[in-house]
Amino acid sequence: MTIATSASGSPSVAAPPSVARATRPHLASHLGAIAQLAAAGLVGSLLFGALATLLSLGVSLLLVLGIGILFLLAFLYLLWATSWLEHERVEGLYGFGVPTLRARRSGVPGFGGWMRTLWQQFIDGQMWRGVASAAIATVLGLVVLPTVAGLVASVGLAFAPLGAADTVRVPGTGFQIEDGWAVGLGVLGVVISLAVLLGVALLHAVLTRAILVPSQEAQFAAQAQVAGAQRAGAVRASEVERTRIERDLHDGVQPRLVSVAMTLGLAQQKIDDDPAAAKALVDEAHTSTKAAITELRQLARGIHASVLDDRGLDAALSALAARSPIPVQLDVRVEGRCSAQAEAAVYFAIAESLTNAAKHSRGSEARVVVRRRDDGTLWARVEDNGIGGARVLPGGGLDGITNRILAAGGTARLDSPAGGPTALEVSVPCAS
After folding, report:
1. 316 and 207 belong to one structural domain
2. How far apart are CA 398 and CA 414, in angstroms?
3. In which residue ranges of the chain is pLDDT below 50?
4. Does the reported pTM lie above 0.85?
């Protein structure tokens, strides 16, 4: 069971691509497009044939012991793979800024959540646009293949008079023409073939840009949606953090300080009549005061980790692991520094996860892995060997993690099946 949640428990919102004007295709792009379209004409025909077969088998066998469901699932996953490959192909060819196709997640656990995920994937407009683009590429590829064959034949016809024969056979036909006409007809064929290939390449560039590249209005709308989600996450995270601080003060430090005051009051009453008892009460108050100071330090550390600013994420996590009640295997490989917001979000996500593991998981050890990925994101995974069953509850620690990560522009993913283990993955833009 895998869920990816945001502040409201809904699927986390991925950051949209930056608004940028698509680059103009150049000659190399057009030549590459012709070569790719020729391959798409062959591979795409087989691929869409397989999709049609899976769909027909799925529908026809749907009522036969549910066997058709397997074919329909294969149909959906093959559709998604086709669309993903088309997105990557077009972006690699033209550099239009085509957004990467990402798998949908409903954010709801269990079988019902999985079915909702499948439905959301099926109605994903971005996936279907990729499929449409792949279908167009296949059709254009079927035009490119005979055109290339015609180009080769025209070149051969243009050079045919170099032979000894007085007449030349037109390739693909049974006609014989005099060698004096062969050169002109061959050159004409070459010109027409090249014009068709160039026209197909230009048409492909125009159609793929229109289908796959979001308009600037759509990109602005997506950015506004993400900004709103981040703002809501920040507000929710601050509320959860304030509630936690109030609870820790009310349930921990405040009663201890009240006890210290009462103990000192009793000692003051006994200091003349029973100095020994008064001394014992003062010692007890002194011990309680040191415990209160320790709790205040832990509370302050939960609000802001000064070592994070001074020495970076690696040192801060090392200190965190050393204080953990359960053994922690720490594997941090981060070159350089990320933004303070990104490091703080990841640090507190790991800290809260280790706290939850110590309190609720009944696990004997935890493992923390942190990496800075090539795409400029700071990624972390916290896993324990406990009993699992963790849930994101409003106001809980996991709720605070997801909202803090969302506010930093990242995503959080929780995997905690019953029986364990529990794993939390967070990913935050390094420059957030």
Report:
1. no
2. 9
3. 1-22, 164
4. no
